Amino acid sequence: MSENRYKKSSKAPMIILIVVSVIIVAGIICAVIFLNGNTTPKDPKDLIEETTILELPTDGSQDTQPQTESIDNTEDHTHENNQPQQSSEVVVVPTINGGEQGDYFSASFSPSSAIDTFTDTNCSLKEVFGSSYSGGSITFNSDGTLSDNLSLTGASTGAYAVEGDQIVATYANDKNYIITISKWNGDVPAEIIMNIGGYDVYFN
């Protein structure tokens, strides 16, 4: 009886060990199956779609940045081109012995005759102005500016001041002329005499 009990008691640990081993192996198998089920690769189409969505914002931002800069540059040039150009040229008219200046006026004068001051004889306007004479006039404006289109080479501009019976005319090329007012029509000169190269030229 004692031998049978000993055999039964010695078989019990073996059975327990086998059961535990089976349980462990089963658990490992279940764990592997579970992990494999969760790590199933996605459909390749899904992967492509996700990659495209992530890349589009980056490509779009790179493409639009130069365009934005180009538009900004165009706007800058547009603003620059639309800005008015202001002339910085200033004509300073000298005074005659510090005389009191009269009012500006608005009138145009055309040359009518000329006298050679050396011979005191009449001469043609072509002789005075040369072949470039255009038959134009001198215009004095009420803002103190003047324009001269007597020559075919182009109009000249300048400024003037009135002092008594004289007009001090200063052109933009720094030429100064003392013009004599020989006749008045109220507050506006009616006839002026301008010495040009030794000739007294009458304008009315």
Number of helices, counting only DSSP H or I runs of 4 residues or more = 3
Task: Please give the number of β-strands.
Answer: 10
Our Rg estimate from Cα atoms comes to 53 Å
Structural class by helix and strand composition: alpha+beta
What labels describe this entry?
alpha+beta, 10 strands, Lipocalin, about 200 residues, about 30% strand, 2 domains, single chain, ten-stranded antiparallel sheet
What's the SSE blueprint?
Layout: H1 2-38, H2 44-82, E1 107-109, E2 111-116, E3 121-123, H3 125-129, E4 138-140, E5 145-148, E6 156-163, E7 166-171, E8 176-185, E9 188-196, E10 199-203
Antiparallel strand pairs: 1-4, 2-3, 2-10, 4-5, 5-6, 6-7, 7-8, 8-9, 9-10
What does this structure look like?
The protein has 204 residues and is α+β, with helices and mostly antiparallel strands. It folds into two domains: 2-82; 107-203, Lipocalin (Beta Barrel), CATH 2.40.128. 40% of the residues lie in helices and 28% in strands. The chain is built from three helices and ten strands. It has helices at residues 2-38, 44-82, 125-129; strands spanning 107-109, 111-116, 121-123, 138-140, 145-148, 156-163, 166-171, 176-185, 188-196, 199-203. A ten-stranded antiparallel β-sheet has the order 1-4-5-6-7-8-9-10-2-3. The radius of gyration is 53 Å and the shape is rod-shaped.
Concise overview:
The protein has 204 residues and is α+β, with helices and mostly antiparallel strands.
